[in-house]
Amino acid sequence: MEMEKLKEALHFICSSDFLRMALFWNFALIYSYFQLLKGRIFGSKSTTSFSSSSSNHSSNASSHRPICVITGATSGLGKATAFALSRKGFYVVLVGRSSHLLSKTLAEIKNHNEDAQLKAFEADTSSFQSVSNFRNSLEKWLSESELHSSIQLLVNNAGILATSSRPTVEGFDRMMATNYIGAFSLTKLLLPLLRNSTVPSRVVNVTSFTHRSVFSARFDKDSVTGVYSSESKQYPCASIYQYSKLCVLLFSYELHRQLRLTDGSHHVSVAAVDPGAVKTNIMHELPSYIQVLAFCSLKVLRLMQSSEEAAESVIDAALAPPEVSGKYFFGGNGRTIESSAVSRDPKLAKELWDTSCLIFDELQQTHT
To answer: Does pTM top 0.90 for this prediction?
Structure first.
């Protein structure tokens, strides 16, 4: 058994995926921290700090608790974020694939915070039908609970790092569907509820420093749905993961621009957040020896964080004032830095937006 695990690890080490993860991803992470250091020493304009204490999302601002929707809320970063936002006074709506894990998470939050107001919905963000059904269930719950037909915060956190091709019902690559297409679709479907909020609302998209490892990209339909990757002999898991996180960033910036065209008051704002390296189970599909190597090396470099520590960056992005719209949070303490040049290219962002809207419209027509 141990020999098989060792062979599996050695085989992975010889792959291009390992090179990307060990070299490019670590460099990308270190470069992000270098930006923080540079800003601290030289007062770089690219590094800004915001205080979440001035948030418009505080429960004191309204007689009703603000409602927050969190995807991937049953483990790791999503779970830690749900804990934190419940303590901040939010009515937390947890979204996850497992009803068992949802029930377990609800119980754990209640044990730590008796006053927490929680609701759980089972949904798979890799499936458009599931995402659409969730939207319908959410609207029905708001109506039946006599709550205002609105939400104040959407945290698109759900994400996977798959090591094999597993197409969705729609024929999309599952990693692209979960990490990006699902987030895009859910945001589009919930925008009316965000716009209907009586107080400023926010979309927080969880991305990753790995986006810096993408130096050029196409955003045609096959690329965005990951169809081309399923035809490869060896599944390029690292390439697809970093590409999906680049898509999340480009989407965040373009959504910010699109919203500003229709609403200059920042009523619905958008923030992207990179939690850094986090000790979660996202790497559970990688060979066990590779997981240990990754965790140990990042721990030695003091770059590995717990889910609770990393969730602070998500909270910063969620609670910062409306003028943070279009910012990229990294490093905690409300700090923001610049993402890669590729991710800040407005032409690429518009190309991705148009392709994503086309995919979204086709999915809606198919499932109506």
So the answer is: yes
